[in-house]
């Protein structure tokens, strides 16, 4: 679900700005998911494209591969529907999955980014008992 190598590379690259940028991902993602759900309710293929594109790009930046692929599918299908002037009812199941996958991805990011997780992994108890939070 998450490519932790990409997540770690992004975290290293962003340095002290990581938590702030991850917060932007959360805020933008909440807005994008809501806009996608709204566009589907409005039966508007065109209104699906930009928020799905935004969510896809940001998800991939943090390594949320499944989320990025689902958002990409919504985006590309919506673009096709715009071209053939079709409404997006076919995307209902993908849009329903999107919110859950977004929330699951955020929970995974929060668990990994939480400073207490790193301390627990490096604690003497972890070394002695082989306990891990992952």
Write down the secondary-structure element order. Answer: HHHHHHH
The total beta strand count reads 0
CATH level-3 fold name: Four Helix Bundle (Hemerythrin (Met), subunit A)
Integer average pLDDT: 88
CATH class: Mainly Alpha
- Which range best describes the helical content: under 10%, 10-25%, 25-40%, 40-55%, 55-70% or over 70%? over 70%
CATH architecture: Up-down Bundle
The N- and C-terminal alpha carbons lie at a distance of 14 Å
Strand content: under 5%
Q: What does the overall shape look like?
A: elongated
Low-confidence stretches: 118-134
- Class by helix and strand content? mainly alpha
- The total of helices stands at 7
What is the total domain count? 1
How does the major sheet shape up? Answer: none
Radius of gyration: 17 Å
Protein name: Histidine phosphotransferase
Modified residues (Phosphohistidine): 53
Keywords: Phosphoprotein, Transferase, Two-component regulatory system
GO molecular function, one term: protein kinase activity
Key structural traits:
mainly alpha; Four Helix Bundle (Hemerythrin (Met), subunit A); phosphoprotein; Histidine phosphotransferase; protein kinase activity; 80% helix; transferase; two-component regulatory system; 134 residues
């Amino acid at each position: 679900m998450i490519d932790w190598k990409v997540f770690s590379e992004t975290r290293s690259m962003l340095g002290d700005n990581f938590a702030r940028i991850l917060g932007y991902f959360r805020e933008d993602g909440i807005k994008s998911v809501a806009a996608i759900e709204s566009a589907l309710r409005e039966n508007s293929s065109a209104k699906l494209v930009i928020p799905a594109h935004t969510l896809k790009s940001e998800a991939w930046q943090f390594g949320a591969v499944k989320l990025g692929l689902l958002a990409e599918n919504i985006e590309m299908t919506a673009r096709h529907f715009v071209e053939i002037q079709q409404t997006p009812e076919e995307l209902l199941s993908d849009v329903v999955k999107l919110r859950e996958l977004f929330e699951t991805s955020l929970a995974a990011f929060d668990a990994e980014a939480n400073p207490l997780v790193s301390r627990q992994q490096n604690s003497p108890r972890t070394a002695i008992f082989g306990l891990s939070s992952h």
